[in-house]
């Protein structure tokens, strides 16, 4: 990546506001594409989505949730019992171990309920900050910016952050956008990363963010 141009925080916030306006026009009502009906289901689906597509997760979870509808049911299972339900998803063996361990943790420490704080969620096996932020935002309506590969990539291309560390990217984005917009920023950047600003071949020629993107390849 080329060196960051000098840009005041005020100018960067102005640019971020224009980017946000474009994203809102492109993806009104943007929300997670993971299918869920309870915080527990969202937690499981988000753990499964690491290095996997939402489509593949959504194909696997109906049967998984029918067999293990809550933390209590999953806590009684061995990882080997869970594996057949998620074997089409990458890293399914390690994810099965984490899910059963997390379910037992939920039963032992939280009465089977999914907690609604970052500290308690990240104490669960297999749950990092990104997963926790997804659950907090989508299950509990809390203002968070979950930084996945799409969000991190677009934040760097837009020169909203120079960092690879997701936690640092999250803090940089929080400084640029109002708290009320954090959840949408997460979803909007994800959708734009999937549909337009892809990792290998970003479609700069049809990107409405181009005028405010220092990485735009359109002359």
Walk me through what this model shows.
The chain folds into two domains: 9-28 and 147-212, Helix-hairpin-Helix base-excision DNA repair enzymes (C-terminal) (Endonuclease Iii, domain 2), CATH 1.10.1670; 39-140, Endonuclease III, domain 1 (Orthogonal Bundle). It contains eleven helices and no strands. The protein has helices spanning 9-26, 39-49, 54-67, 71-75, 79-86, 92-110, 118-122, 129-140, 149-157, 166-176, 182-195. Helix 1 packs across helix 11, helix 2 (39-49) crosses helix 3 and helix 2 (39-49) packs antiparallel against helix 8.
List the SSEs and their pairings.
Blueprint: H1 9-26, H2 39-49, H3 54-67, H4 71-75, H5 79-86, H6 92-110, H7 118-122, H8 129-140, H9 149-157, H10 166-176, H11 182-195
Helix pairs in contact: 1-11, 2-3, 2-8, 5-6, 9-11
Give a quick rundown of the structure.
The chain contains eleven helices and no strands.
> CATH fold name of the largest domain, please?
Endonuclease III, domain 1
**What is the assembly state of the chains in this entry?**
single chain
State the separation between the terminal residues, measured CA to CA.
18 Å
Q: What's the SSE pattern?
A: HHHHHHHHHHH
Radius of gyration: 19 Å
Percentage beta strand: under 5%
For the residues shown, what is the average pLDDT? 95
Please mark out the parts with pLDDT under 50 across 5 or more consecutive residues, or reply none. Answer: none
Percentage of helical residues?
A: 55-70%
Q: Given the helix and strand composition, which structural class is it?
A: mainly alpha
Overall number of strands? 0
How many helical stretches? Answer: 11
The CATH architecture assignment of the largest domain turns out to be Orthogonal Bundle
């Amino acid at each position: 990546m080329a060196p960051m141009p000098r840009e005041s925080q005020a100018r960067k916030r102005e640019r971020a506001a224009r980017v946000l306006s474009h994203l809102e026009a492109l993806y009104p009502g943007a929300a997670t594409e993971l299918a869920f009906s309870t915080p527990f289901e969202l937690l499981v689906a988000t753990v499964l989505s690491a290095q996997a597509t939402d489509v593949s997760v959504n194909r696997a979870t109906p049967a998984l949730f029918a067999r293990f509808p809550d933390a209590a049911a999953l806590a009684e299972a061995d990882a080997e019992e869970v594996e057949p339900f998620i074997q089409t998803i990458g890293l399914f063996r390690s994810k099965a171990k984490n899910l059963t361990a997390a379910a037992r943790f939920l039963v032992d420490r939280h009465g089977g309920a999914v907690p609604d704080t970052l500290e308690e969620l990240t104490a669960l096996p297999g749950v990092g900050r990104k997963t926790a932020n997804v659950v907090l935002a989508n299950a509990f309506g809390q203002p968070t910016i979950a930084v996945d590969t799409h969000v991190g990539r677009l934040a760097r291309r837009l020169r909203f952050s120079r960092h690879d560390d997701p936690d640092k990217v999250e803090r940089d984005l929080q400084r640029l956008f109002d708290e009320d917009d954090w959840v949408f920023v997460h979803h909007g950047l994800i959708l734009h990363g999937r549909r337009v600003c892809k990792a290998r071949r970003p479609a700069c020629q049809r990107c409405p963010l181009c005028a405010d993107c220092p990485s735009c390849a359109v002359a």
